């Protein structure tokens, strides 16, 4: 983190209230038949993400696993933002080199002038018009899996198999409510009662997941699916951020044997850990959430080397990519800096 003042001028906690996430997103879809006016086309769209954001991280993982790098370009915002928008401060001149904009807000306003909701990542932008198409992250990954099949790499895994969709959807619903969003409900609670309720639901769900994963390698079936992607991005941030910053402190992930081994198994699977930038994750949460961390001091720990300890999950069987193959290493331009990750360079 650079030694300069950064103010979000935003508030994430409402005194006396539970945290309630605004889940109204731009639901336009990019589909093979183009029924919403945006057909799947290689090179037409740009995925705008941020390494820090768990919701964006999901889409980056799925894009990697399916091999869509050449069909769907990736723009990365920096780890901090202000009350207005995510910004492209990592790029030369602080502008996205493809869209030519400094703030993601510009793409939202190009389609919806004065857009009144949050300027969120991930977002997919139509490059010719410069206008946002969608920020509906939950549907976004499903569409990459089901609508973009013409551009999947050879050996791409089936992340949302038809026979398992009902079970995947059921698992995802609880994981979203009590884990993905549950950590935020703890961290942004505006009262002791709201926090206590969120804390209990979070750890009840983590105990349920531990029991589920004690005898099976992956959440649904014997291969990696959409369900594993959605859980992983929260687990990857747990000890570095949620345990302390969000007060999710019954125990660390590294003190939950089953979930810790499961998370390490995925972390060392190509397409997962190679998308995780721990330095950006910590900078985002500890700097942006000023009402939780007014000093904006970013903690030095935890030690990341333990992510590479043997996990022994292969003893449970399972085939990570099913009948497919692992993705190749990420393009050089998309690699996480070596000092931000415990993984060895590709």
From TrEMBL:
Q: Does the keyword Transmembrane helix apply?
A: no
Write down the position(s) of the site called Lowers pKa of active site Cys.
242, 285
Keywords recorded for this protein, A-Z: Transferase
Q: Name one GO molecular function term.
A: glutathione transferase activity
**Which CDD domains does the record associate with it?**
GST_C_Omega_like
Please give the SUPFAM superfamilies that the UniProt record associates with this protein: GST C-terminal domain-like (SSF47616), Thioredoxin-like (SSF52833)
Transmembrane region(s): none
Q: Where is the GST C-terminal domain?
A: 135-288
Cite the binding residues for glutathione: 86
Keyword presence, ATP-binding:
no
Q: State what protein this is by name.
A: Glutathione S-transferase
Q: Which Gene3D superfamilies match?
A: 1.20.1050.10, Glutaredoxin
**In the UniProt entry, which residues are flagged as the active site?**
53 (nucleophile), 184 (proton donor/acceptor)
Superkingdom is: Bacteria
Stretches the record annotates as Disordered: 315-346
For this record, an example GO cellular component is:
cytoplasm
């Amino acid at each position: 983190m650079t030694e300069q003042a950064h103010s979000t001028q935003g508030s994430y906690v409402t005194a006396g209230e539970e945290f309630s996430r605004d889940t109204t997103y731009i639901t336009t879809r990019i589909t093979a038949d183009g029924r919403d006016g945006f057909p799947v086309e290689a090179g037409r769209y740009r995925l705008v993400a941020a390494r820090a954001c768990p919701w964006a991280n999901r889409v980056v993982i799925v894009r990697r696993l399916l091999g869509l790098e050449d069909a769907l370009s990736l723009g990365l915002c920096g780890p901090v933002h202000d009350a207005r928008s995510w910004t492209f401060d990592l790029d030369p001149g602080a502008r996205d080199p493809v869209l030519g904009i400094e703030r993601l807000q510009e793409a939202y306003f190009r389609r919806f002038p004065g857009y009144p909701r949050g300027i969120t990542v991930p977002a997919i932008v139509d490059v010719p018009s410069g206008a946002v198409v969608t920020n509906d992250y939950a549907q976004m990954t499903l569409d990459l899996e089901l609508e973009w099949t013409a551009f999947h790499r050879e050996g791409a895994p089936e992340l949302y198999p038809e026979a398992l969709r009902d079970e995947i959807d059921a698992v995802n619903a609880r994981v979203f409510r009590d884990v993905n969003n549950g950590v935020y409900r703890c961290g942004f609670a505006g009262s002791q009662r709201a926090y206590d309720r969120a804390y209990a639901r979070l750890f009840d769900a983590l105990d349920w997941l531990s029991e589920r994963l004690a005898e099976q390698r992956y959440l649904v079936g014997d291969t990696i699916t959409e369900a594993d992607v959605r859980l992983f991005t929260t687990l990857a941030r747990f000890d570095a951020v949620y345990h302390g910053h969000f007060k999710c402190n019954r125990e660390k992930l590294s003190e939950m044997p089953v979930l810790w081994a499961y998370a390490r198994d995925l972390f060392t699977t190509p397409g997962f850990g190679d998308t995780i930038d721990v330095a950006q994750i910590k900078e985002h949460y500890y700097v942006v959430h000023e009402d939780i961390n007014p000093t904006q001091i970013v903690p030095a720990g935890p030690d990341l080397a333990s992510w590479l300890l043997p996990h022994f999950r292969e003893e449970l069987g399972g085939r990570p990519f099913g009948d497919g193959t692992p993705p190749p290493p990420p393009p050089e331009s998309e690699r996480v800096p070596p000092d931000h990750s415990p993984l060895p360079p590709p």
